[in-house]
Amino acid sequence: MLANIIVFDVGSTYTKAAAFRLDHGKFTFLGRGQSPTTLHDIMEGAGKAQEAIRAQGVEFDELCKRYSSCSAAGGLRMVALGYMPRVTAKAAKEVAMTAGARVMQVVSSEEPLDYRKEVLMEINPDIILLSGGTDGGDETCAMENAEMICSLHSKATVIVACNKYAQMPVAELFDRNGIRYVRVPNIMPTIHDLNVKPAREAIHEEFIKQITRAKGLLEFRDSLADATVVPTPGAVLLASELLARGTYDQDGVGSLILIDLGGATTDIHSALPELEKLAIEERGLVINNEKQFSYRTVEGNLGLRVSATGIPEAVGPKAIIRAMDLDCDVTPDEVTAFAAKLEAHPEYIPQGEKEQSMERAMATCAISTALRRHAGHYAEVADPVMGIMAGAAMGRDLRNVEKVLCVGGIFVHSDKEKALGMVERCFEEPGISLLPINPPKVILDRSYLLYAMGVLGKHYPDAALNFLKEYVNQA
Q1: What pLDDT was estimated at residue 12?
Q2: Were 231 and a residue from 100, 111, 174, 319 both cysteine, which residue would form a disulfide, CB within 3.0 to 4.6 Å?
Q3: Residue 268's pLDDT is what?
Q4: Cβ within 8 Å of residue 369, ≥6 positions away
Q5: 406-435 per-position pLDDT tens digit
Q6: Closest C-alpha to 171, from 154, 187, 159, 153
């Protein structure tokens, strides 16, 4: 077996690698390996991960192309400054979705200037997204925020993505005061339109610069075929978007949900291609993320390690006991103590059937809670002011979704049937939530290949789509 493509994922703890053979537009998966990430020399850990694949009988072509994603640096801290609070928040989340940034705070022009200054001084962001004003609209907000940034001598990189008529004076002001900035087209040129791709790419470039400095990735990056490192969460989302939407030459599989359950957060991402066909009137006069093709929510208090205690706090210990797939005596105090143990010792591996069942139950509760926060719901009471009738569908509509992709260590290391069960239970009683009407097909990424297809999909979209289709059908 001769591989001509290898894709790495450099994490804070482990560096993973997956080897493929690309032949006549078709990917064949040959093997995967991993090794502890070596922060003093990323090349060393990557080399060991590659050697782990070679030990499986896989050889590498002399011209083997190398690609990579990376989560070793975590997400860049981002503060979004804008004009209208709801609009700025939605736009900022869309921009940050796949770019490797964490939106720490969204601040509108309604907040006092002193408060905005306090936010920037306290968070000390890596990136400031300077938005506000549609093209031809308000300019004063962007200028006021730019002057504030200069007065603080901020070391952040400012993504200037505001009203295009305000961008030149803002840039001149930053030049005079030595503020690092990147100009991109307005992220909201009209009130019902989002143009987030240029801003995402600018943030992505900052992500690459940070991990190059912090983790010694310069030599590693230069060894890659495209000299680009994709943020790992973004790579996974890109794979799900490709699978749902398809390419110019072939259709995707349609609407899907992606569950990414980690130690710190539970992320839910949904890709609904049919929403791209909506007319502007159907989307709403003011941009609404929930009507966008791709939508992601992050629950920072629902993780299986770093934020484990957030799960019993959110649902109650008794809900976790009810979700257990093992019939045994467990008290609420035991659940609380177990969650605290996982949070205090993230490296701990649950011992015995009882602890393993508790961990799966915590995962079920985290996923179920995150899904219901992501999905829309049926209005329970009428709102004559907004023209909403009781029973009307509000928010993100997932009722017709048929496929659910699951990414995370617990899906890889748990028994397959038990892992499927803990996800399937989340869809059994949707209540007022707009979750799938029919039980969806649950697909576990047990070979950890979604990140690789997200990276490769940028260069070989049709081959990656074909591979993903076969992958989910075999799961």
Answers
A1: 72
A2: 100
A3: 92
A4: 266, 299, 302, 311, 314, 315
A5: 999 899 889 999 999 999 999 999 999 999
A6: 159
SS3 call for 117: helix
Closest CA to 72 of 202, 210, 237: 210
C-alpha–C-alpha distance, residues 255 and 190, integer Å: 27
Residue 153 backbone class (left: φ over 0; alpha: ψ -120 to 50; beta: rest): left
Q: What angle do CA 305, 308, 312 make, to 5 degrees?
A: 160
183: left (phi over 0), alpha (psi -120 to 50) or beta: beta
What is the DSSP annotation of 206-268?
Answer: HHHHHHHHHH--HHHHHTSSSS-EEEHHHHHHHHHHHHHHB-SSSB----EEEEEE-SS-EEE
- 183 — phi, psi (to 5°)? -90, 135
Residue stretches of the chain with pLDDT short of 70: 72-75, 89-90, 97-100, 211-216, 279-289, 382-388
Q: How far apart are CA 147 and CA 145, in angstroms?
A: 5
pLDDT digits (tens, 9 = 90+) for 308-337: 999 999 999 999 999 999 888 999 999 999
Torsion, Cα 27 30 36 37, to 10 degrees, reads -30
Measure the CA dihedral 104/108/111/117, to 10°.
Answer: 50
Phi-psi region of 5 (alpha: psi -120 to 50; beta: other; left: phi over 0): beta
Contact partners, residue 112, CB within 8 Å, separation at least 6: none
Residue 98: how many CA atoms within 13 Å on its side-chain side?
22
60 by DSSP, 3-state: which?
strand
Task: Give the three-class secondary structure for 139.
Answer: coil
Task: Report the C-alpha gap between 453 and 443 in whole angstroms.
Answer: 15
DSSP string covering 389-416, please? -TT-EES---TT--EEEEESHHHHHS-H
Residue with tokens 């992220």: 187
| Residue in the block written with tokens 């359950």 | 261
Residue 237 and residue 98 in contact, taking contact as beta carbons nearer than 8 Å: yes
Whole-number Å distance between alpha carbons of 203 and 100? 7
For 286, the token pair is 């003011």
The pLDDT assigned to 364 comes to 97
Question: Amino acid identity of 154?
Answer: S
Residue 148 tokens, joined: 């504030």
For CA atoms 459, 460, 464, 467, give the dihedral sign. negative
Contact 272, 434 (CB under 8 A): no
Q: What one-character DSSP code corresponds to residue 453?
A: H
